[in-house]
Amino acid sequence: METFKLYIDGRFEAGAARFLSRNPATGEPWAEMPEARGDEVNRAVMAAQRAFNDPAWRGLTAGGRGKLLLRLADLLEANADELARLETLDTGKIIRETRAQIAYIAEYYRYYAGLADKIEGRVLAIDKPDMESWIRREPVGAVAAIVPWNSQLFLSAVKLGPALAAGCTVVLKASEEAPAPLLAFARVIDQAGFPPGVVNVITGFAAECGALLSAHPAVDHIAFTGGPETARHIVRNSAENLARTSLELGGKSPFIVFDDANLESAANAQVAGIFAASGQSCVAGSRLLVAESIKERFLALLTRKAEAIRIGAPEDPETQFGPLCTARQKQRIEEVVGKSLEQGARLVTGHYALEQGGHYYPPTILDCDGHPDAACLRTELFGPVLSVQSFRDEAEAIRLANDSAYGLAAGVFTRDLARAHRVTGVLRAGVVWLNTYRAISPMAPFGGYGESGSGREGGISAALEYTTTRTVWLRTSDEPIDDPFVMR
């Protein structure tokens, strides 16, 4: 049984309480985790607040912050295999993806290392001849960064990287589901040499950890990735401290295939969009919208690819598809798929029992044509279930794509450049992929509309999320003020 610790104020500690984490592939407990409660949460936040005002961090130059981030990137890269092993064990994500993703995450820290000394203010062309005025960009303060279990090292990087580049301090809360990779990442942070309290890593349950963290009076900004319902609780909690929020939430993303698309390429991208990571991705392309004239041909191609996916043990490098993270997810997916079938959806493939045990659920495709109220079309399942609808023309494709409370991502497959511009211009999505899907880069911001949240992560805009502005006025004249009772 492996054991993990909290990381608070530059020290590792066991925590007042402990809980077990289970291997999704077997259902068996494999590690003992620390649970942060009131005292630990308070000490983590107060450590971040003290570090924010400590000259060891506040007095560090922007270039100095950049060098620490570069060191963190190098150490992350050096520890990628071990972190990938832990993520695969604790979440069930396949090892071929965790290894590749963690190695690439180092580039996010390098990007923000380079950006640290480029967060600049500006001089105003003020309308008073005896005055000068300028704006300074300042770090917002102590940040509560709350991330889910899926892609947690990536979702931490897009918060931790820009926050540290801007000069903030951070309390990073890992999900109580599968927190091992982030708790292990705390050891890498410690080795990087950040002053004590600049980064703190905790985990715990909603009432005893999440609620206290998001309502803590010393928290200045809350960066959250997760579901809309949890986000609503966080926003309500933030009324206690008036903290700013940036929310990257769920999605029910449309994947649109027009009749002129390269079908082989589109099918491969659809497999990546819904069956990679066993569908456990906020940008999962879970709604296939396909031109009526090619629907049967494309669905046959996609079904062959789905049924050929290698399902197996997540630690096997040959495995393409692993288990869901929790038994609760599997049960919920089974219920929604069952309800959708009762509502008239047609099972194309999947929805059968697998021999592997654990939390496995097979790649599943449901044809929902003629049944627009099927539960699978509206519900974010966070699993490997694709819902299919056909469209007759471009206008109907756009209408179906935008018929959702979510607005995170979308995919469009067409060879018609004019159509690509028209469609991307009206899709209600913060990220649109044209003739590809599930591509990321440190330079590219992502985020959504509606129930997919607010704010953007990635790119320069993410660093500005963690800053506030200070306006400075300088009077250049030595003459006495004419009338002290009149505003200048």
Automatic annotation (TrEMBL):
Q: Which GO terms describe its molecular function?
A: oxidoreductase activity, acting on the aldehyde or oxo group of donors, NAD or NADP as acceptor
The organism's superkingdom is given as Bacteria
The active site is formed by 248
Tell me if Cell inner membrane is a UniProt keyword of this record. no
Residue span of the signal peptide, if any?
A: none
Q: Which InterPro entries match?
A: Ald_DH/histidinol_DH, Ald_DH_C, Ald_DH_CS_CYS, Ald_DH_CS_GLU, Ald_DH_N, Aldehyde_DH_dom
Protein's UniProt keywords contain Oxidoreductase? yes
- What are the UniProt keywords, alphabetically? NAD, Oxidoreductase
Q: Which residues form the Aldehyde dehydrogenase domain?
A: 18-472
In the record, the note on similarity to other proteins reads: Belongs to the aldehyde dehydrogenase family.
Q: What is the protein name for this chain? A: Aldehyde dehydrogenase
Origin species, per record, is: Jejubacter calystegiae
